[in-house]
Amino acid sequence: MNGQELCKRLLTMAIVLLGVSLLTYGLIFITPGDPARTILTQQMGGQIPSQEAVEQFRAENGLDDPFLVQYAHWMGDVLQGDLGHSYYNDRSVSEMIIQRLPNTIVLAVASIFVALVIAIPAGIASARNPGSQADYAAQIGSLIGVSMPNFWLGYLLIIVCSLRLNLFPVAGAAGLEHLILPSLTLGSGMAAVIARLVRTAMLDVLDDAYIQAARAKGLRERIIIYKHALRNALVPVVTIIGLQLSYVLNGAVVIEVVFQRPGLGTLLVDAIFARDYPVVQGVTLLIGVIFVLMNFAVDLTYSRLDPRIDLGGDPT
Questions:
Q1: Which terminus, N or C, of the chain has the lesser number of Cβ atoms within 10 Å?
Q2: pLDDT of 245 above 60
Q3: Which family does it belong to (predicted)?
């Protein structure tokens, strides 16, 4: 990647993040309701605050200013590394995110691991024996995985594995046993998508001339599959894994609520219900940054797997 291409990508990333922040701030601004009155009511244990207290809260937090003024103040603080403070408990938003982020990262990594462990062997087995019972079973399993809502699967696993069989805890994030059901719930849908893609990519690669030449030379089928065919078949798979990060992050919001994991998902949902706008803006901006960086990482990995691909978009 040359300097000009790097500058273009950095500029694109900045524009995307600016658009995400502006859209999020705008949606929050036009949301019906008074955050000052809501926050004060919660802080006072359900009692209705006085009008003077509401007006003072608005003035202290700049809620009386026009939209562009509020956004400019917030963006100026963000550029200085300050995401603001929670309306509800006056804690630093950055501190709250740092406290919750590890749990979400662990869940995301575990879910991707579960998806790959399921999807790659299933896709390879399906592609090696097209039309077989294993192929039909893999395709049916993929269809069920894509169609099944992850929150429904989560509740089903809780009922069967936690309440009836008492194998795993229902909620929390204290240890590995608390991670199994959430990662399986979140990873199953992603596994279905990746398995179908692996099957399609492997079928295309196994028909290539170099695979036939390797077989003619007498190489063992295992070496042909895992050393030669799989590497080229993984090129589109890497792309979909990067794009599936959006599924992981969106699904984490739901799954963390279902399993009551203290991560970014529960932090965002709690902040939305509490009208804690600085927390909502900070978490949303972080998710946008993760999306942009992951897409960039996918491009780099893509070109490493297939050197013929130019990052500028033109194949050599």
A1: C
A2: yes
A3: Belongs to the binding-protein-dependent transport system permease family. OppBC subfamily.
Q: Cα–Cα distance between 182 and 157 in angstroms, integer?
A: 9
In a domain, 183, yes or no: yes
Amino acid 313: pLDDT: 47
Confidence at residue 181, expressed as pLDDT on a 0 to 100 scale: 92
Contacts of 158 by beta carbon, 8 Å cutoff, 6+ apart? 170, 181, 258, 259
Print the domain residue range for 153.
Answer: 108-262
What's the rounded Cα separation, in Å, for the pair 235 and 204? Answer: 12
Q: Rounded to 5 degrees, what angle do the CA atoms 245, 250, 252 make? A: 95
Confirm whether 176 is domain-assigned. yes
* pLDDT confidence tier of residue 17, bands split at 50, 70 and 90: confident
> How many other C-beta atoms lie within 10 A of the C-beta of residue 209?
7
pLDDT at 159 over 90: yes
Q: Is residue 145 part of a domain?
A: yes
Phi, psi of 228, rounded to the nearest 5 degrees: -105, -55
CA dist 297 to 171, 248, 291, Å?
Answer: 33, 16, 10
Judge whether 206 and 230 are in contact, CB under 8 Å. no
Say how far apart CA 282 and CA 94 lie, in whole Å: 8
139 occurs within a structural domain:
yes
Q: Residue 226 — pLDDT band, cuts 50, 70, 90?
A: confident
How many distinct structural domains can be found in the chain? 1
| CB atoms closer than 10 angstroms to residue 283 | 26
Tokens of 11: 């500029």
Tell me the per-residue pLDDT of 80-135, one tens digit each, with 9 for 90 and over: 888 888 888 888 999 999 999 899 888 988 998 999 899 888 888 888 888 888 88
Helix (DSSP H) and strand (DSSP E) numbers for the chain: 13, 0
Contact 41, 49 (CB under 8 A): yes
Q: Check residue 190 and give its pLDDT.
A: 87
At 219, which CATH number?
1.10.3720.10
